[in-house]
Write a structure and sequence with these properties.
The protein has 13 helices and 10 strands. The protein has helices at 18-35, 52-61, 66-74, 94-117, 122-126, 141-151, 192-199, 228-231, 272-299, 315-319, 328-355, 363-367, 382-401; strands spanning 10-14, 36-37, 46-50, 166-173, 179-182, 209-211, 214-217, 237-241, 304-308, 360-361. Strands 1, 3, 4, 5, 6, 7, 8 and 9 form an 8-stranded mixed beta sheet that branches. The longest helix has 28 residues, at 272-299. The protein is globular, with a radius of gyration of 22 Å. The N and C termini lie far apart (51 Å).
Length: 415
């Protein structure tokens, strides 16, 4: 796009982070797609997606542009060609509930037998009842069904082997703990939609996904980005997006009011258990990213790796619940604007790295204050608009009913 052609092979690695992670990545990719000249995000040499990032990677590899994803996933615009309904994330796992409930009488009998005749203590005997607990709160079958419909449309494919670009979706084998790189030879017979379902099966939230005789869960359990699968294929440049970072409250802008309406963040300990767990989880995730990037400098010194992620001083991304969908427009716009700001601030450092691969930063685009991601116009009318509002209200209430499932508080921590 205005730059001389380059022979560089370019890959994209997308980490997870729940619906929030996917929303952040859509916003960030839209900013990068606008501001970087010489790169086409639907025509890269390789894509690797983990968890929520697998959904975005599968779309890009199928020719769905970042802007089209925004219209479909963030704005629910029917003119986008498809719409990803939020109900895909909140459908109760009724089949799982019934299966576990049906096993309860037998488990009670086994526990009683172990206590009465097995010489076990009451507590040890009844630990067996833990098997009656569901392995997930929500079903991930609707997500797979929606992905299948999107990818089976004309011009797209739900088959790894039919894609023009290499796509790798990483999940984790529940029984062995090993990574499952769906899309690589020997793993490419699995439908893409099912691989996405497995990669995004966060334990506790979604049940493990059975593929063949094995069960798979979230790909982030093993690594955060899984960049190596692209590096080992000889790419020259890898762009990485990681939505979850720990919050640096010591350097945060305490004086301003947040876009979400919350006041400034106090000391994190004042936020209680949800905030402490959020910081812990994010710090663990981010430390793996840092360790991985340092190791790649040694193992692949000739490959350039550029990481984009939220500012650790940004309270907006920290306060957002990673399972939030109802505030997707606000989060996506924020990710879009912050990525633009990040490009402006790092332009002097990034420009020569990107130039080696025929990519230029369009500073005129970044300097334009009129650019926004999410349109202000109403995309729905009448009954459909009222239904969407009711659904979003239900989602918001659900997010507050399940605070333990998020890795951040969706409201201001108590002071």
């Amino acid at each position: 796009m205005g730059n001389p052609p380059t022979s560089s092979r370019i890959g994209l690695a997308l980490a997870g982070g729940g619906p929030l992670g996917a929303i952040y990545e859509v916003g960030a990719l839209c900013a990068l797609d606008e501001a970087l000249r010489g790169i086409d995000f639907v025509a890269l040499d390789g894509y690797v997606g983990v968890s929520a990032g697998s959904f975005i990677a599968a779309g890009l590899a199928n020719g769905i542009s970042p802007r089209q994803m925004c219209r479909a996933f963030i704005e629910n615009d029917p003119d986008a060609g498809f719409v990803m309904s939020p109900t895909a994330f909140v459908h109760p796992a009724w089949a799982e509930y019934l299966q576990r409930l049906a096993a309860l009488p037998g488990l009670f009998a086994q526990a009683g037998w172990r206590y009465a005749f097995g010489g076990r203590s009451l507590l040890a005997a009844f630990e067996r009842l833990g098997r009656a607990l569901p392995t997930g709160v929500f079903s991930n079958a609707p997500l797979e069904a929606q992905m299948r419909r999107v990818l089976q449309a004309e011009g797209r494919s739900n088959d790894f082997r039919q894609l023009a670009r290499r796509l790798i979706i990483v999940a984790t084998d529940l029984d062995s703990g090993e990574s499952a790189p769906f899309g690589l030879p020997g793993w490419d017979h699995v439908p893409i939609s099912q691989a996405v379902q497995a990669s995004a099966a966060l334990p506790g939230l979604f049940p493990p996904v059975r593929i063949g005789t094995r069960h798979y869960v979230d790909g982030a359990l093993k690594k955060t980005l899984h960049t190596r699968v692209l590096l080992d294929r000889g790419v020259d440049l890898v762009l990485c997006l990681n939505p979850l970072v720990p919050f640096d409250a010591t350097h945060a802008p305490h004086s301003r009011r947040l876009a979400s309406g919350d006041d400034r963040i106090p000391r994190l300990v004042d936020g209680g258990l949800p905030v402490v767990l959020s910081q812990t989880f994010r710090a663990l995730i981010h430390s793996r990213v840092e360790l991985g990037l340092r190791s790649y400098e040694t193992s692949h010194p000739d490959t350039d790796i550029v990481l984009f992620e939220p500012d650790q001083r940004d309270p907006e991304m920290f306060l957002a619940n990673i399972f939030s969908y109802s505030q997707r427009r606000v989060v996506a716009e924020h990710a879009y604007q912050r990525t633009r700001a990040d490009l402006r601030e790092r332009a002097a450092t990034l420009a020569p790295v990107l130039a080696r691969h025929g990519i230029a930063i369009d500073m005129a685009v970044l300097a334009d204050p009129r650019r926004h991601l999410v349109g202000r116009r109403q995309l729905a009318r009448g009954r459909s608009l009222r239904a969407l509002r009711r659904l979003e209200q239900t989602l918001a209430e659900l997010e507050h009913m399940l605070p333990g499932l998020g890795t951040a508080a969706s409201r201001q921590p108590p002071r």
